[in-house]
Design brief:
The structure holds two protein chains of two kinds. Chain A contains three helices and no strands. Chain A is an all-alpha fold. Chain A has one domain: Orthogonal Bundle (Helix Hairpins). The model of chain A has no long low-confidence stretch (mean pLDDT 86). Helices cover 76% and strands 2% of the residues of chain B. Chain B is mainly α. The two termini of chain B are 34 Å apart. Chain B has a two-stranded antiparallel sheet. The model of chain B has no long low-confidence stretch (mean pLDDT 88). Classes of the chains: A mainly alpha, B mainly alpha.
Chain lengths: 111, 523
């Protein structure tokens, strides 16, 4: 079930990035894709009835969820913040200079 | 001293990062020593990269385990035989890429310190530059999948920020935004496929995954994602639209380093194909996919370059085209990987030609971008139709540009000839048509560069460029370093191939030795 959600979210994100003209919406699409990947990573580490992976005083015979993927997710969230911040600040500059957010009207490079 | 030598792989990253984060402090309180500091840090980082590379070429693959006592094996005893620590694995191919990044990054920083003198916001600019270097060094030396992703993101973020540094009326930001979006989507796809592999093999270590790799549907999905994402980073067709946009608006020195940054993506692609998947691949199919990508990049890149008027955009399309040669050479080797006779007959040579072309391209394309940057630095004009007659006043720049142009067109005795000849010969044995296409592209490249050379440097002096002077000495020094290597590699190609290219090709072709170097006798 979570995997279907992941696939669906990635599909939606791709559609947004490819089809939307508004650059803010494209950044939001990338945000959705990032969440989808994070969800995927957390899901593959999930164990039914698992407990937090802390070995001190851990009860015997109980499954633990995988800690590695959680570390990966945490790192990816931090990277995602940096990327989003950089993209949004670039869009701010473009808006100041061009007066538009429409990606079709960003054609100064081609002239 | 031995403590330093034992921890060389870690210093590779540490020196650049430490140096980078001190720059803003120096810029704030001691602006005078900032520029020497930047050159010093870059020199140290390059020196360490060269030392690492030499160690690898003389003593074999270096495996460095972070947070463990020096010399301990990747899999510690209490982990039950699974290496769970972050490791750096520098084999022949990694060392080869380290060399190319080290040479270019040091040459470029000399050039930048001089060409950025009158610009504002230099502290952050140099800090980002060193971060980009750290990202490239990290990508080519890590032995851990997730670590590779982190360095890939450092690389993309630093490169995008540098591209947009001189806003230039918003144009630079536009190019940078496209580059960043493409790279972020690519990065997330890499992470997704890393997740797919982790779910199956419970490990992020490349060697562990490689030792258990099979050809299943899930792995094919992961491979397709990897190829797509890393082709995006390397800027090949069909993802070539972002590359020229970003290259043409970035500060010239930065573009030279971004060529290397893109090649780190190419490194990732070859590493995944040969080392992680290796024998488990359906080599003929995947090999042909790579060959077709290469041919398309070559042809589309060069045909798009011909009509360009913006000189840096033209060079950027040639970068796409040259990437095609590397993919062609390595793709042929991959296609015959399962056939030992063909592999030793021409596959090995194709591989070596493709890899040799990586370092050659980094050198001469770096040189060309620096020379063109020198012209723009003095004239402020990008348009080929408005430039002309600069050969009278900028003799050194003209000579450097000419050497770079002849090298990229594959004229002896420069380095481009050596690697292209290896590619032609071996690809001809595999499929003559592919080789003919490669030669035609090479002729078109020559035609295009003669046009640029003629319109920028030849002809009578134009009145508006009457008082143009030669660029400062440090900028020339940066170009001289690259020129020495361009000519040197062209004069003694056998020596270079034997000492650095063959180990790199062997490291990729021999998957077992990589796994054995990391895991030892544990599994």
């Amino acid at each position: 079930m979570p995997f279907i959600t992941v696939a669906l979210l990635i599909g939606i994100a791709f559609a947004i990035i490819l089809l939307k003209k508004n650059m803010i919406k494209m950044v939001m699409g990338i945000g959705i894709m990032e969440s989808a990947v994070n969800l995927f990573l957390i899901t593959i580490g999930y164990r039914e009835d698992g407990i937090a992976p802390i070995f001190t005083n851990a009860p015997e015979g109980v499954d633990m969820v995988l800690p590695t993927v959680q570390a990966l997710t945490l790192t990816n969230i931090v990277i995602g913040v940096a990327t989003t911040a950089l993209m949004i600040s670039m869009i701010m500059i473009i808006y100041k200079k061009y007066g538009t957010l429409n990606s079709d009207k960003m054609r100064r490079l081609k002239e | 001293m031995s403590l330093l030598l034992d921890n060389m792989p870690a210093l590779l990253i540490a020196v650049s990062l430490f140096g980078a984060f001190l720059i803003p402090i120096f810029g704030r309180f001691l602006p005078k020593i900032r520029d020497p500091w930047v050159i010093l840090v870059s020199f140290l980082a390059s020196l360490i990269a060269v030392i690492n590379a030499v160690t690898v070429f003389t003593k074999g693959t270096v495996v460095y385990v972070f947070g463990a006592a020096a010399g301990s094996s990747a899999a510690s005893i209490d982990s039950g035989g699974l290496p769970f620590r972050i490791i750096f694995t520098i084999d022949g191919f990694g060392a080869f890429m380290l060399l190319s990044a080290a040479i270019v990054s040091f040459a470029v920083i000399l050039y930048l310190v001089s060409s950025q003198k009158e610009r504002s916001g230099k502290s952050e600019f140099y800090a980002l530059y060193l971060l980009l270097t750290a990202g490239i060094f990290g990508m080519v030396s890590t032995g851990d999948m997730f670590n590779f992703f982190v360095f890939l993101e450092i690389n993309s973020l630093a490169a995008a920020a540098l591209v947009s540094y001189h806003r230039n009326g918003g144009i630079a930001v536009e190019g940078a935004l496209k580059y960043l979006i493409v790279n972020t989507v690519g990065g997330l796809m890499v992470l997704l496929s890393i997740g797919l592999l982790y779910a199956q093999y419970d490990s992020l270590n490349m060697a562990v995954i490689a030792s258990q790799m099979t050809w299943t549907t899930l792995n094919i999905v992961a491979l397709v994602l990897f190829i797509t994402a890393l082709a995006m980073k390397a800027g090949t067709v069909p993802f070539h639209y972002a590359t020229p946009d970003a290259y043409s608006v970035a500060p010239s020195g930065i573009t030279a380093l971004m060529v290397v940054a893109s090649q780190a993506g190419l490194y990732g692609l070859f590493r995944i194909l040969f080392t992680v998947y290796g024998g488990a691949l359906n080599t003929v199919t995947v090999g042909w996919v790579i060959i077709i990508l290469g041919i398309l990049s070559m042809v589309i890149g060069v045909t798009m370059a011909l009509p360009q008027k913006d000189v840096k955009r033209l060079l950027a399309y040639h970068a796409v085209s040259q990437t095609g040669y590397m993919l062609l050479g390595v793709g042929v080797a991959l296609a015959v990987l399962g056939d030992p006779v063909a592999l030793s007959a021409y596959g090995q040579t194709a591989m070596e030609g493709g890899l040799f072309h990586i370092i050659n391209h980094a050198l001469y394309k770096g040189l060309l971008f620096l020379a063109v940057g020198a012209v723009i630095y003095r004239t402020g004009v990008w348009n080929l139709n408005k430039l002309g007659g600069l050969g009278h006043n900028m003799k050194w720049t003209m000579i450097f540009f000419l050497i770079g142009a002849l090298a990229i067109a594959g004229i002896p005795p420069f380095n481009g000839f050596a690697s292209k000849l290896m590619i032609y010969e071996s690809v001809f044995a595999f499929n003559p048509i592919l080789s003919v296409i490669a030669m035609i592209v090479s002729i078109l490249t020559l035609a295009s560069f003669m046009k640029v050379f003629h319109s920028v440097f030849m002809g009578p002096k134009l009145p508006e460029f009457e008082n143009v002077k030669e660029v400062p000495k440090l900028m020339i020094a940066g170009m001289v370093i690259l020129t020495i290597f361009v000519i040197g590699f062209g004069l003694v190609p056998d020596l270079v191939v034997d000492s650095i290219v063959t180990p790199a090709a062997d490291a990729l072709l021999n998957q077992g030795s990589y796994i054995a170097a990391v895991l030892g006798g544990v599994l």
